[in-house]
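Re: duplicated header lines in exported structure tokens

Our pipeline writes sequence and tokens for each protein into one text file. With two proteins the header for the second block appears twice in some exports. Here is an export where it did not happen, for reference. First protein block:
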Amino acid sequence: MPPRVALITGCSEPSSLGAALALALHRQGVKVYATARRASTMSDLAAEGLNLIELDVTDKESIQAAVDVIEAQDGRLDILVNNAGVGGRAPLLDVDLDRLRALFEVNTFAPLAVTQAFADLLVEAGKTGRDAVVLNVGSGAVYGPPFSGSYGASKVRVGGGWDDAEPAQAALQTLSDTLRRELAPLRIRVITLELLMVSTAMLNRQKIYDLFRPTPSGYYANWPAIEADMRGDKQRTGGAARAADVAARLARALTSPSPPRKIWDGVPSWLFRWVLPLLPVSWLDWLLVKSARGVRLVQRPE
């Protein structure tokens, strides 16, 4: 059976989960195409012998160019990892809707666009005797922590539950769940990664959209102080999972004969998976407001 071929989006930072996963799969003997908008940001991966493709996941022509490369070189794609994403944090009253749409383009619509474009090559991989795999990197923060609604809405369900029984309206998780069922007859397995805190470029504030509208509401005039209190970079990063450890677990799952449908990882995945779904909504509201850094600094107008 030929070696697997994988493409991973969002490998632009050495500390990113995408870069760590690219290395983990490469070391398992998978032929990996690491992608980012600029190849120069992936020099560490090039030094390890990985294949690099410049790919803007929001640009149709850029996506097709990546498809053409793999079709010419390999004729199939065994593993597709939709990892590219950006963060954004702001009070929803102050979010600029055009900027929010741009965030959704990257976090929600791009994974579907990339999957559509590579569908034929994924189907070809299924003809080798083993199923192709698509991994969509979502967020496990399904309960709408204060000031994180823009990012969370682009990644997770609008609702209280974590499993498939919870009705939902939106975003990457629902797209991923539906794709899993629709693509199963084509021998394409779809995995959703419910990701919590991992020490990556996004957590370290290197890939965050400015979401504020030009004329904010005025209710959060002291936002810099609120955000600084929320951030606690050193404390947050120190308590997060290591990207290399998460990547090693994902690489094993992606190359398993029977990969899971959902994977929870990061810190504290156990809390979001097993504990919070059992709490009444009123308790959840109290807990999330009480524990959210910065909420206590919001100034009520006179």
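Second protein block, exported in the same file:
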Amino acid sequence: MRRPLLDPTRFQPALLCQTLTLAAALLVAGPAAASIAWVSNEKDNSLSLIDMQSLEVIETLPVGQRPRGLLLSHDNRLLYICASDSDRVQVMDVATRKIIKELPSGKDPEQFALHPNDRWLYVSNEDDALVTVIDTQTSEVLGQIGVGVEPEGMAVSPDGKWAVNTSETTNMLHWIDTSTQTLADNTLVDQRPRFVEFSRDGSQLWASAEIGGTLTILDVASRQVLKTLTFQIKGVHPDKVQPVGIKLSADGKLAFVALGPANHVAVIDAKTFEVLDYLLVGRRVWQLAFTPDQRQLLATNGVSGDVSVIDVQSRKVLKSVKVGRYPWGVVVTP
């Protein structure tokens, strides 16, 4: 009798070995980890952690008093927390979810920004009209820079040359030369500037004015205003339109602006400065953050105590996730 051209019994041991090897590798690797959103709850002195796959809160962590601003180190290993009423910046290890140290931030830290060198932290001290500069590695205060009344928003340019602070009562942007840690210039904007964000290429600075109800876009090289935008939402009184948080997409095509008690997020063409859409979210939307792949945008809604998850491509709200009382800041780790 002729043997078949291919004898299946000849391949069974090799096939079994390959199957077992693959299964073992999958067991070791485990399921792919989902991104985690970290949300500061201003009135609960806590952080809510949201699993971005299930869109559910998976853990609540106690932190300092009145946590507001949040940011990540450039390698995503450390989470910095403005514990405003504790007069401290807390540093949390993302892997262990434990506070590992506290930095001398000055009084009432609210927002901050990290230099590209991953060491210098620029902190706005609302009660003292100061910006405090901290070396995050040595925990030393490198300097304090006098700015306007009620400083709040902070941003550092991608090239590290400028740190910009907003002063709510003085209605100015303050340009700090990071090579000398001194004030170099001031730019007058609309009432109560709250937040600033540089474009990824560093050529533009976007600044929101809460009471002015506007968004100002500046040319960084000249520090001159390129455009001032206003927002008109059908059925919403103009006094309710109070721009706060800003996020620019990595590709430079879109900008998103939280409009406070207007309960909407504005979508802007970042090239033409045209307002494209308004997305209805929760009550008093405050801060924004992209997921690492930039497919989703998260918005903290202080009064309704939840986080809106927005699909960026379709511009649709996918879900509202209940968190603690008065969610303020948000960042997302891979």
